[in-house]
Design brief:
Order of helices and strands: EEHEHEEEHEEEE
Largest sheet: 6 strands, mixed
Oligomer: single chain
Helix content: 10-25%
Number of domains: 1
Bound molecules: inosinic acid, magnesium ion
Strand order of the largest sheet: 5-4-3-6-7-8
CATH architecture: 3-Layer(aba) Sandwich
CATH topology: Rossmann fold
CATH class: Alpha Beta
Number of helices: 3
Number of strands: 10
Structural class: alpha/beta
Length: about 180
């Protein structure tokens, strides 16, 4: 089994680029059918989604716009101790079909916070696409419209996902060893 070391941890090959891109192709095909008349605005969430977003958008062939945002994350006074806010959205989303493009939904907290904030700008509808979903880790109910792959709750790196900032450039996805 192919392994890599990212910083202090060992990871083993979990999903190859070929497998991932087959799943991404299926999602794009579905979007091409569902969204053809909707003039969608894709909002890709950096940093993690940069490879997924690129591979997905290369396969989406309908008229659309593509934009990028980040979620700031800082300690604050709230029940969870963390506050997350979208920044970098320049388009007016009022009345539009918006498709959020995320790398992974784990507990679902990040996505549900993002949706709460996007709704305030009165889009016509918000659809959610994630490359990966860890169904067993979900803690909140989030509406997910396009999920490329479901995976176990192990920690993974590669294909845009990082461990402490590293490993995003790995072309395949690796999972942590002995977990
Ligand atoms: P959530 O708020 O728990 O759903 O977490 C979402 C964010 O946590 C993702 O956007 C990722 O940045 C990060 N994340 C969750 N699981 C992993 C993983 O296995 N590897 C790397 N990052 C992860
Ligand atoms: Mg992310």
């Amino acid at each position: 089994m192919k392994t890599v070391k990212v910083k202090d941890k060992e990871f083993e090959l979990f999903l190859t680029q070929e497998v991932i891109e087959k799943a991404i192709g299926d999602i794009a095909e579905k979007m091409n059918k569902d969204l053809a008349e909707k003039d969608p605005l894709f909002i890709c969430v950096l940093n993690g989604s940069f490879i997924y977003a690129a591979e997905l958008m290369k396969r989406v062939s309908i008229p659309c716009e593509v934009s990028f945002v980040k979620m700031s994350s800082y300690q604050g006074i709230s029940s969870s101790g963390k506050i997350k806010e979208i920044y970098g959205l320049e388009e007016d989303i009022k009345g539009r079909t918006v498709v959020v493009v995320e790398d992974i939904v784990d507990t679902g907290y990040t996505m549900s916070l993002m949706l709460e904030q996007l709704v305030c700008d009165e889009p016509k509808e918000i659809l959610v696409s994630t490359m990966l979903l860890k169904p067993e880790a979900l803690k909140v109910d989030v509406k997910l419209d396009y999920v490329a792959m479901e995976i176990p709750s192990d920690f993974i790196v590669g294909y845009g996902l990082d461990y402490d900032g590293y490993g995003r450039n790995l072309p395949d996805i690796y999972k942590i060893k002995n977990s």
